[in-house]
Amino acid sequence: MKYKRILLKLSGEALMGERQYGIDPQRLAEYAQDIKTITDLGVEVAIVIGGGNIFRGVAGASNGMDRVQGDHMGMLATVINGLALQSALEDADIPTRLQTAIKINEVAEPFIRRKAMRHLEKGRVVIFGGGTGNPYFTTDSAAVLRAIEIEADVILKGTRVDGIYTADPEKDSTAVKFDHITFDDVLRKGLKVMDTTAFTLSQENKLPIIVFDMNKKGNLLKVVSGETIGTEVNL
């Protein structure tokens, strides 16, 4: 395996499957099986998941809700998704721990860096819920922050497109895909990979990001094995 310890970033929308909102158990089961293929090979997996399938703080704020309250609701949505993913992983016989940035001791452990790293060393998948625990920060920022803290080798951003393009491939048929691109080129071309805070944090810490299609079975294994799947952002 090219990567020993990874941070997998999943959007909340990814859990919807073919639904308009909420959680699709079939999609969760598919993700769990893909994750099992790499944990069985000894890869240490941490996961950060969004909450957009349930609630978005930014959307709430745009409709007149207090932004801080909205972001707290979004954090709780990520915990709901984390619990659902944990259940799916354990159904696939993968030992899993859910840690949250906001304390909900009855349902999850609080985030403790050293404890998280110990779980990973013991072969447990660790799901980080609750974002960073602070409003005004996205789950992209949480993913990069946690990846740095646990000393991950790479951030794998699982999306529904197979990489980074010159334009949105779902809207522009002439869009061209990049196999590799530098952090500086992403910024210069104005490409959307992650929000600026998360992206800059990743660049400053020399942490590569790979954007790939998580919905295609077997892609996760290919990425971790070092195959050129999706787009790698590096120095």
CATH architecture: 3-Layer(aba) Sandwich
* Strand content bin: 15-25%
Number of domains: 1
- CATH fold descriptor: Carbamate kinase
**SSE topology string:** EHEHHEEHEHEEEEHHEHE
Uncertain regions: pLDDT < 50 for 5+ in a row? none
Mean pLDDT across the residues is: 94
Count of beta strands: 11
Please, could you describe this protein's structure?
With 235 residues, the chain is α/β, with parallel strands linked by helices. It has one domain: Acetylglutamate kinase-like (Carbamate kinase), CATH 3.40.1160.10. Helix content is 38%, strand content 20%. The strands form 2 sheets. It has a 9-stranded mixed sheet, sandwiched between helices. It has a two-stranded antiparallel ribbon with strand order 7-8. α1 packs across α3 (67-91), α1 (25-39) runs parallel beside α8 and α5 (139-149) runs parallel beside α7. The model has no long low-confidence stretch (mean pLDDT 94).
